[in-house]
Amino acid sequence: MKELVEVIARALVDHPDAVRVRETEDEDRLVLQISVAPEDMGKVIGKQGRIAKAIRTVVGAAAVREQKRVTVEIL
Protein backbone atom coordinates (compact mmCIF):
# COMPACT_ATOMS: atom_id res chain seq x y z
CA MET A 1 0.00 0.00 0.00
CA LYS A 2 2.84 2.35 0.91
CA GLU A 3 4.55 1.71 -2.41
CA LEU A 4 1.36 2.51 -4.33
CA VAL A 5 1.06 5.91 -2.67
CA GLU A 6 4.75 6.65 -3.25
CA VAL A 7 4.50 5.90 -6.97
CA ILE A 8 1.42 8.10 -7.38
CA ALA A 9 2.87 11.00 -5.36
CA ARG A 10 6.27 10.91 -7.10
CA ALA A 11 4.56 11.06 -10.50
CA LEU A 12 2.69 14.23 -9.52
CA VAL A 13 5.44 16.42 -8.05
CA ASP A 14 8.44 18.35 -9.38
CA HIS A 15 10.73 17.13 -6.58
CA PRO A 16 10.14 13.35 -6.33
CA ASP A 17 13.11 12.89 -3.99
CA ALA A 18 11.31 14.93 -1.33
CA VAL A 19 8.30 12.60 -1.22
CA ARG A 20 8.03 10.66 2.03
CA VAL A 21 5.27 8.22 2.92
CA ARG A 22 5.01 7.02 6.49
CA GLU A 23 2.90 4.01 7.38
CA THR A 24 1.47 3.60 10.87
CA GLU A 25 -0.99 1.12 12.32
CA ASP A 26 -3.82 2.63 14.29
CA GLU A 27 -6.39 0.64 16.31
CA ASP A 28 -8.35 -0.79 13.40
CA ARG A 29 -6.86 0.94 10.37
CA LEU A 30 -3.70 1.70 8.47
CA VAL A 31 -2.68 5.37 8.26
CA LEU A 32 -0.53 6.57 5.36
CA GLN A 33 0.98 10.02 5.80
CA ILE A 34 2.34 11.76 2.71
CA SER A 35 4.82 14.61 3.00
CA VAL A 36 6.17 16.51 0.00
CA ALA A 37 8.20 19.65 -0.63
CA PRO A 38 6.22 22.80 0.28
CA GLU A 39 6.13 24.01 -3.33
CA ASP A 40 4.63 20.66 -4.44
CA MET A 41 1.82 20.63 -1.89
CA GLY A 42 -0.70 22.11 -4.33
CA LYS A 43 0.09 19.46 -6.93
CA VAL A 44 -0.70 16.64 -4.51
CA ILE A 45 -3.88 18.27 -3.22
CA GLY A 46 -5.14 19.59 -6.57
CA LYS A 47 -7.87 22.11 -7.26
CA GLN A 48 -10.60 21.77 -4.65
CA GLY A 49 -8.85 18.64 -3.36
CA ARG A 50 -9.61 16.55 -6.44
CA ILE A 51 -6.17 14.92 -6.70
CA ALA A 52 -6.15 14.09 -2.97
CA LYS A 53 -9.63 12.59 -3.29
CA ALA A 54 -8.50 10.51 -6.28
CA ILE A 55 -5.49 9.20 -4.34
CA ARG A 56 -7.76 8.26 -1.45
CA THR A 57 -10.17 6.51 -3.82
CA VAL A 58 -7.43 4.42 -5.45
CA VAL A 59 -5.92 3.48 -2.09
CA GLY A 60 -9.38 2.67 -0.74
CA ALA A 61 -10.04 0.33 -3.66
CA ALA A 62 -6.70 -1.40 -3.09
CA ALA A 63 -7.48 -1.69 0.62
CA VAL A 64 -10.79 -3.44 -0.07
CA ARG A 65 -8.91 -6.15 -1.94
CA GLU A 66 -6.73 -6.68 1.14
CA GLN A 67 -9.69 -6.31 3.52
CA LYS A 68 -8.19 -3.40 5.41
CA ARG A 69 -9.29 0.11 6.33
CA VAL A 70 -6.87 2.79 5.15
CA THR A 71 -6.68 6.51 5.78
CA VAL A 72 -4.47 8.81 3.68
CA GLU A 73 -3.25 12.05 5.25
CA ILE A 74 -1.34 14.76 3.41
CA LEU A 75 1.03 16.66 5.69
TrEMBL record:
Pfam families: KH_KhpA-B (PF13083). The keyword RNA-binding applies. It is found in: Cytoplasm. The keyword Cytoplasm applies. GO terms for molecular function: RNA binding. Keywords: Cell shape, Cell wall biogenesis/degradation, Chaperone, Cytoplasm, RNA-binding. InterPro entries: KH_dom-like_a/b (IPR015946), KH_sf_prok-type (IPR009019), KhpA (IPR020627). Its main location: cytoplasm. One of its GO terms (biological process) is peptidoglycan biosynthetic process. GO terms for cellular component: cytoplasm. Belongs to the KhpA RNA-binding protein family. Forms a complex with KhpB. A probable RNA chaperone. Forms a complex with KhpB which binds to cellular RNA and controls its expression. Plays a role in peptidoglycan (PG) homeostasis and cell length regulation. NCBIfam families: PRK00468.1 (NF001748). This is RNA-binding protein KhpA. It comes from Kroppenstedtia eburnea.
